[in-house]
TrEMBL record:
Pfam families: zf-MYND. Gene3D superfamilies: 6.10.140.2220. GO terms for molecular function: zinc ion binding. The keyword Nucleus does not apply. Residues 139-180 form the MYND-type domain. It comes from Cytospora mali. Keywords: Metal-binding, Zinc, Zinc-finger. This is Zinc finger MYND domain-containing protein 10. Coiled coil: none annotated.
Length: 191
């Protein structure tokens, strides 16, 4: 479970593609231990010779995510959840300048750093909506407090229910079945 609330509106913690630091010999280094997260949505898989995705950030800036040092079949993008419409969170992403200054830069992920890129099974808009969700003080389904307090969803630990009936209703009718997968993915990234 996350230890603190993540503020997805914080542009220092969640910069856009155009505001992430540049990669290269002249790039300004970041203080040790500093982290930021580039949040984007998969628009297309453009893999030809190496795994490459076209993404857009929260400001709709398109850019490529290129996995260096890997062949076209070395990374199962679809199997890892990098599908069209899914969100991607890249830890400490850096923008690489293109050789042609008239083109956009891209994000390059070296072979050993592929673990810094995580897929979240939802559109970026939904990730932003759910990102800061914390444990509630009332039942997700009926709004009550329950006689014995709330029982937490064992999947995401963020949703609470006053009874088994409310939990089943929240899961089947309230949309928690889908949201739970998203919240679990976010918990894994921000633990």
């Amino acid at each position: 479970m996350t230890s603190s609330i993540i503020d997805f509106t914080n542009t220092t913690l969640f910069p856009t593609f155009l505001t992430i630091p540049e990669q290269g010999p002249d790039a300004v280094s970041s203080p040790a231990g500093e982290r930021w997260y580039l949040l984007a949505e998969v628009k297309d898989n453009m893999t030809i010779t190496k795994p490459t995705l076209v993404l857009t950030d929260r400001d709709a800036n398109p850019f490529a995510l290129v996995f260096e040092g890997l062949g076209r079949d070395d990374l199962d993008l679809k199997g890892l959840g990098f599908k069209k419409g899914a969100s991607v969170i890249i830890i400490n992403a850096r923008r690489t300048k293109p050789a042609d200054e008239s083109k956009r830069g891209f994000v390059r992920i070296e072979k050993g750093d592929a673990g810094n890129v995580t897929a979240v099974p939802a559109a970026m808009e939904r990730v932003l909506e759910l990102g800061g969700k914390i444990k509630g003080h009332s039942c997700e389904t009926c709004g009550g407090n329950g006689e014995d307090g709330l029982k937490r969803c064992t999947g995401c630990e963020r949703a609470g229910y006053c009874s088994k009936e409310c939990q089943v209703k929240g899961w089947n009718e309230g949309g928690h079945k889908k949201d739970c997968r998203i919240l679990r993915a976010l918990n894994d990234i921000f633990k």
